[in-house]
Design brief:
heteropentamer; A alpha/beta; B mainly alpha; C alpha/beta; A: alpha/beta; Rossmann fold; CBS-domain; 2 domains; six-stranded mixed β-sheet; 19 helices; 15 strands; elongated; disordered C terminus; B: mainly alpha; MetI-like fold; binds adenosine-5'-triphosphate; binds magnesium ion; ABC_transporter-like_ATP-bd (chains A, D); ABC_osmolyte_uptake_ATP-bind (chains A, D); amino-acid transport (chains A, D); transport (chains A, D)
């Protein structure tokens, strides 16, 4: 692994008048609430250690008040930590002098603020161009660019309005355009889409991902929307009361939550959309590489399954069923398996979201083969697997109905008996 | 015990010696350096004289036209321009044209100098708590130390005339703009500043693009007060030989010509209102965003 | 029996001294309850005419608000109790003593005109400065008329308005400290002339009192002729009500007067000690008994003496 | 229907210096963008007509900038309309004098602001008590109540902090507590949960619904989260560019969007959670009320279905299959159908979200019976119905796979051929 | 054409008649109503006299203790309290105790009256554009019409003494607090106000719970300026019979005792600084929320 772009080491943040004098309480492991009650100081962050790689979209989640905004503010040193180091490109940004810090902020990072932070006395366009202005870009160029970005966020026509004349979501988009306009390498986005409606939001997500694809920007993204996190995030970090409880890839977190907190956190997600086939498929147990029909039949019989996925050196070839092969086995048992005997079956690709393969999977009694771009059979997806994943039982092994109803406190109608006689 | 009822004072003799020594000290200081200091201000004096002559000697309608032009450019309000025109005409009609022009010339210079020095001072103050805690008492002294106290020392140093008058006016008039610039900058929304910082603005950009524009309402209040103070000092300045509307006021008081006093006072007020309205509407025009709030 | 009396305490030394002397004598000698009220000439005079307060103005240069005072007397609101400076004030155009020592001819107006270039004008290098009397004072009219009568303008002088008494005094002080030439109007006895000895310029015309009253002191004097200033009347002024209600005290005020010499001596002492009126009054009552006992009856004098 | 609690009639809002002079453009049908470009005036709302019933949770949705906040601000007259009337309890609030308006605002309505609108100089607790203070409630009582509500929104311990010391979501909860604390009949909630994480958000939703259940408050709720809207809303209104495009019940909107805009809007919702069984079940075509086994068999045969739901006067009784009945028909053909012949089968209730019945539905080859609380059979839910609804084809009749992939622009893996040979 | 160079003026004769008529008119007005007006102010005068006597005649250490007590209560800052104590002691030590107490008494009253009248006026101004456009020019007049102009008329009406002094001081000192109260209220965040409105606050609650607290920094700047102006008027007030530190200042100027002037000026400054620091730290203490911003 290359050295990380951003590295956070042992970061503490204690808010209040005399943070230093109370740090020992934090170190002694007192909880946030205890510290607040005892000293009136709020524990913002506690011993955060984190690495963010160049080019990834790193999502930060956590309960309201868990320290997300505080953490992201350290990345460009809008606040100084009580303790700890923030290293960007092997440079400790706590040690930058005023000029280098300025330079760093101009060139390296740009930020979308949770509460927008627009300049009320500038028009929308001037706001968007603000970052460029700070960089000293000429008027004409920055206006052109600002106009372009305004259009991209869907605010063409509002160039000369003032922020106070815009709706909340429009203001947020101005903040977004401002951040994108600077071409900074690292984007810090604090709930950047929270005030947007689903349509514009997904448009913005697409744009962001396209941008990232194209320019390999590093994006630190705070969001409360798990679907969003799972959709755009390469990795997700989860904070609780200022502590980092889990960092991992989306599917990891969804399927192997570190603790109850994380599990609760991810419970309500739309798994069908969040998870890809890859993450839930099983190894292809019904895989055969038999050369002849008889071989294949033998295989199937010994495995006691009525079907199989036929694979040869060139990869996945097709789906065969015992029933049909048996019909021709007598005559052509010795012949090699070939297209003529394959049956119609869906083939799904590992990166597809589950959502898109629900109908096909459910339509078929047998599992569907999962084939990657190289044509290799990488797994199979059965109806049961799908149902199990979709019904909230990430840690339990079997997808029992009871399990599901226990899990969901408000379940109403899953009784086996009619509700009333 | 006498100190219970009487304040334990410096003895009269000690006080006397102290006073005499200091007085003598100042006298000898002014004797040795007065000349040099006076010369230092010569260019300014020349400018002041030139500017006053310009206003007084130019045909009155040229001056009025020029003032109306500035007014219109600054405020873009027909109503205001017409009002200014009428009041200037009335001032002339009641026979106060020359004095008014003299006063206008010195007050314009004083106000401009006060603003030019005051805003940077205010910025400095807003930037550091140290500076604030040093400058604040100095401002208190400047505003409350009676002009009468330093009038004579200044006159001894610089003679009577425009320069000491200018200094006295500026000393008295500059504090409001400093204070309110400071206050205005300190009241700027922290969130907005943070956003600007996050984009790596230079201190200058931060100041000129964010802090000053957002502090503008307060700064304008400061400028307004500075103008008011400067005009309030017109009479005091005339006590040390600054020509203008102050002299007829002093004359009226000694002779009990109330009407004369009121007319000349009114001319001062007219100048105040013109200065103030024009500067305020200029400022308001540059703060369009404030009106567009929901 | 004389009750509450208010005495105007004006801010120059001779007036402050007289106010304090009056206060002491009225309180101790006449059993009054006398109180000092600060105030400038104009407000004080106005208030006396219009509101009958304060009761006594110990040193009123009547020329400075002649019309108002005369009207007050006419209307029966004021009384001129007596001269407080028996010689009258001394007005004139002055040059510093050190100049005259250097150029003796400066003691006359012709000499001054000859040295016109010496008196630099601060704002106009082509002209010379003649320092007039502050705006609004009666002396502004007389000084201007004499300036015209003496053709000072033709000689190259510009009549400069010092703005106020303070400005005038300040300009004298400045010139004196730097030993610069100065030429202008002033009056005596004053602390300024006490500290900065000056020479009165002789116009060579003598005093033409009639012309002075009829023309020089009038705003619309068409044809001014040179004349030296006649002595300027300096009055103790009281309100009519005080005069009628406390006749004995009023009687004292009619007598209380200083000659210029006496006053100059006292002013010099005050100047030297930076004394305020009260301190100087004690000094006076203690050391100049022969003067003040003349003003009061013996038993009053005894009472005062006892109180010291 | 009783007369509505809130009635909006012909409401127009045009922002700018001279709205009146430009109203004719609005009436002439110019679009928002045209009006903005021509006159610099922003069209906020256009001819809104709306009725909100006592006790309902009315959700307003729409793109960012479509006029939601503007609309909600009219309800308590924070802005005056350019034209139109707002009638609350048969009173035109435009005609209230200052005092009645004050009273109305104190007692009738309370509001959560999109941008929180906290009083920066008050502590958190004082902020929460603010509404009560306006009503003139005594200090002790309001403090007690405020404390209670603070606890309810999860901010116990923060009573004496100032708003600037809180995180965005915490501030939003303070605003929420403030609104709930007043006991007003009508709650206006402008994106009241937008800054909250999913856990706290769903807690808040539960609380809100419980509150509404208990006290029959009327709630006008703006949200961008369709899941939320569908979860808590009784009715949903959708705005576009200041115009009302559709008002209806959640399922209505989901299943019968008025136009493309609405359809796009609702496309991404998690249908499994949003829809209840009721909304997708079919009428019970396999219903029989035969008295005897033979009758039942005859029925099934004629209907060519291998199973049936047996219903008698007392309601739904059980599930029977042709196969099993046929076995006993010979012996007991004349006997009445009774429990002994019923087969194991799930029974689902009409209000259950689809999500919860996915496993059961998919597990069975036959449709499941839907039985309401009175024990009546109201419908049946088949696997196909379910799959069709879950795969985004609201308007088309048949659930074709092609349909689904056309719909989803980014679909990747639904090809019938292996991606690579 | 003469009007090209000479201003077309009212003829000298007309001007004179005008002046004389007005002068005469005012004189007869003051003669007829002066008495009544004077009586009207009698209670205030009595209070002023009582308050001055209280301060002057109470043992000095009682007064100092009381002032320190107030300081400590208001500012809760040991440093400030000690500073105030030392400066008061120095003032007494240099022999200015009585004058300082006289000045303190009148300035306290003036400041309190100015604040008590000024804040409501400012509120009124902030509430309506009409009020603002009427009051603003009046304030301009109050601040720039030289005190000398109305000193004599006021004296004619009320005689010389504390009351006219008080009036002159208040006229001059009240505008800043009015202006800045107005400005402060107008600058209050619209969103916050809207939120308050949505909860149906009464106008009083809106004012006292929202507008005034949020306008506090500006209002305090106004109060600061009002205090400064009041103290700047000490000397002028002493011209019309208000005893205190102004008189020695005037004496120092006529007699050219620089040190005396500076000492007394310094005493005025000391009062200014005490007033200002105490009021400002009191205000700051009540605005804790401002420091807690991120
Ligand atoms: N004070 C104002 N002045 C001018 N235009 C305004 C004002 N307030 C709102 N608008 C305009 O009215 C339109 C609707 O704004 P509104 O705030 O109601 O949108 P919204 O639906 O709440 O959007 P969001 O979801 O982004 O909060 C926007 O186009 C906005 O620009
Ligand atoms: N300036 C401050 N002073 C005191 N406490 C603060 C300050 N800023 C943040 N905090 C506290 O730090 C904690 C974390 O705040 P932060 O804003 O980072 O939360 P967050 O995770 O961004 O929450 P949200 O999702 O609600 O925005 C909170 O408990 C908050 O009260
Ligand atoms: Mg946050
Ligand atoms: Mg909105």
């Amino acid at each position: 692994m290359t050295s990380p772009l951003i590295r956070i080491e042992g970061l503490y943040q204690l808010f209040g008048k005399n943070p230093q004098t109370h740090m020992h309480l934090v170190k002694a492991g007192k909880t946030k609430d205890e510290i607040l009650a005892e000293t009136g100081h709020t524990l913002g962050l506690k011993d955060i250690n984190l690495e963010i790689q160049q080019g990834e979209i790193f999502v930060i989640m956590g309960l309201s008040g868990s320290g997300k905004s505080t953490l992201i503010r350290h990345f460009n040193r809008l606040i100084d930590p009580t303790e700890g180091r923030v290293i960007v490109e092997d440079e400790d940004i706590m040690e930058l002098d005023a000029k280098s810090l300025r330079n760093f902020r101009q060139k390296k990072m740009s930020m979308v603020f949770q509460r927008f932070g627009l300049l009320p006395h500038y028009t929308v366009q001037e706001n968007v161009a603000f970052g460029l202005r700070a960089q000293g870009v000429g008027k004409e160029e920055r206006e052109k660019k600002a106009k372009q970005w305004l259009e991209d966020v869907g605010l063409a026509g509002y160039e000369n309005q003032y922020p106070a004349q815009l709706s909340g979501g429009q203001q947020q988009r101005v903040g977004l355009a401002r951040a994108l306009c600077t071409d900074a390498e690292i984007l810090l986005m604090d709930e950047a889409f929270s005030a947007l409606d689903p349509l514009i939001r997904s448009e913005m997500q697409d744009q962001l991902m396209a941008l990232q694809d194209r320019l390999h920007k590093t994006i630190v993204f705070i969001t409360h929307d798990l679907d969003e996190a799972l959709r755009i995030g390469d990795r997700i970090a989860i904070l609780r009361d200022g502590e980092l409880v889990q960092v991992g890839q989306p599917a990891d977190i969804l399927l192997h939550p570190a603790d109850d907190y994380v599990e609760k956190f991810v419970r309500d997600v739309n798994r069908a959309r969040a998870l890809t086939v890859e993450t839930v498929m099983k190894p292809p147990t019904h895989r055969i590489d038999a050369k002849t029909i008889n071989d294949a039949l033998a295989h199937m019989r010994s495995a006691k399954s009525g079907y199989a996925f036929y694979v040869n050196d060139e990869g996945y070839q097709g789906f065969v069923s015992e029933e049909n092969l048996a019909k021709v086995a007598k005559e052509k048992g010795k012949e090699p398996l070939c297209e003529d005997y394959y049956e119609d079956s869906f083939v799904i690709s590992p990166e597809t979201p589950l959502e898109e393969v629900i109908p096909q999977t459910l339509d078929h009694d047998h599992p569907l083969p999962v084939v990657n771009e190289a044509g290799e059979l990488t797994g199979e997806l059965s109806r049961d697997d799908l149902v199990q994943v979709l019904t909230h039982t990430p840690t339990s092994d079997a997808a029992g109905n009871d399990d599901a109803s226990e899990d969901e406190g408000t379940a109403k109608g899953t009784s086996k008996e009619p509700p009333a006689a | 015990m006498s100190w219970l009822t009487e304040f334990p004072q410096l003895s009269r003799r000690d006080l006397l010696t102290l006073r005499q020594t200091l007085d003598e000290g100042y006298r000898s200081f002014s004797r040795s350096y007065g000349e040099a200091i006076e010369n230092f201000f010569d260019p300014l004096l020349a400018f002041l004289v030139w500017f006053e002559n310009l206003l007084v000697e130019a045909p009155w309608w040229v001056v009025i036209a020029a003032i109306l032009g500035i007014t219109h450019y600054a405020a873009r309000s027909i109503k205001l321009t017409v009002g200014v025109g009428i009041s200037l005409f009335l001032v002339g009609f009641f026979g106060m044209w020359e004095d008014t022009m003299s006063t206008l010339s010195i007050i314009t210079v004083c106000t401009l100098i006060s603003i030019a020095l005051g805003i940077p001072m205010g910025i400095l103050m807003a930037r550091s708590h140290r500076a604030q805690s040093i400058i604040t008492p100095v401002l208190d002294i400047m505003q409350t130390m009676p002009a009468f106290v330093y009038l004579i020392p200044v006159v001894m140093l610089l003679g009577i005339g425009k320069i000491p008058g200018l200094i006295a006016v500026i000393i008295y008039a500059i504090p409001p703009v400093i204070r309110l610039t400071n206050l205005g900058i300190r009241l700027v929304d922290k969130e907005v500043l943070e956003a600007a910082d996050a984009y790596g603005v230079t201190p200058m950009q931060r100041l000129f693009n964010v802090q000053l524009p957002l502090a503008m309402p307060n700064i304008m209040a400061g400028i307004n007060q500075t103008i008011m103070m400067a005009l309030a000092m017109v009479v005091i300045a005339s006590m040390i030989g600054v020509s203008g509307l102050g002299q007829p006021v002093l004359r009226s008081i000694t002779n009990q010509y109330f009407t004369l006093g009121i007319l000349n006072g009114a001319a001062i007020v007219v100048l105040a209102i013109i200065f103030d309205r024009v500067s305020q509407s200029y400022a308001k025009r540059s703060q369009r965003y404030m009106r567009s709030g929901s | 029996d004389c009750g509450r009396v208010t005495i105007s305490n004006m801010n120059w030394n001779s007036a402050a001294l007289m106010a304090s002397i009056d206060q002491l004598i009225l309180n101790e000698g006449f059993g009054c309850d006398a109180e000092l009220v600060p105030g400038d000439t104009m407000p004080t005079g106005t208030s006396m005419v219009e509101k009958g307060e304060p009761d006594i103005a110990p040193e009123m240069w009547s020329n400075s608000m002649k019309d108002a005072l005369d009207r007050g007397v006419e209307e029966g609101r004021l009384r001129y109790a007596g001269r407080s400076l028996s010689d009258g004030g001394e007005e004139g155009f002055w040059v510093p003593e050190y100049l005259v020592e250097e150029y003796p001819e400066l003691a006359t107006i012709e000499g001054v005109k000859k040295h016109v270039d010496m008196f630099e004008h601060p704002e106009d290098p082509d002209k010379s400065m003649f320092m007039g009397c502050p705006a609004g004072w009666n002396c502004q009219i007389t000084a201007r008329n004499l300036y015209n009568a003496l053709n000072l303008e033709d000689a190259g002088f510009d009549l400069v308005d010092p703005g106020s008494g303070a400005g005038l005094a300040g300009s004298i002080a400045k010139s004196y400290e730097r030993k610069e030439p100065w030429f202008g109007y002033y009056w005596a006895p004053t602390a300024v002339l006490g500290r900065y000895p000056m020479v009165k310029v002789d116009f060579g015309s003598g005093i033409d009192e009639e012309h002075y009253i009829n023309c020089i002191s009038k705003e619309e004097c068409l044809d001014p002729e040179p004349t030296m200033y006649p002595p300027s009347p300096v009055w103790t002024v009281t309100t009519e009500s005080f005069a009628s209600e406390a006749p004995e005290a009023y009687d004292y005020l009619t007598k209380r007067a200083f000659t210029n010499d006496q006053m100059n001596e006292l002013l010099a002492w005050m100047e030297q000690n930076q004394a305020d009126g009260e301190f100087a009054a004690f000094h006076f009552l203690e050391n100049y008994e022969s003067i003040w006992t003349e003003w009061v009856s013996d038993d009053v004098a005894d009472k005062v003496r006892d109180a010291l």
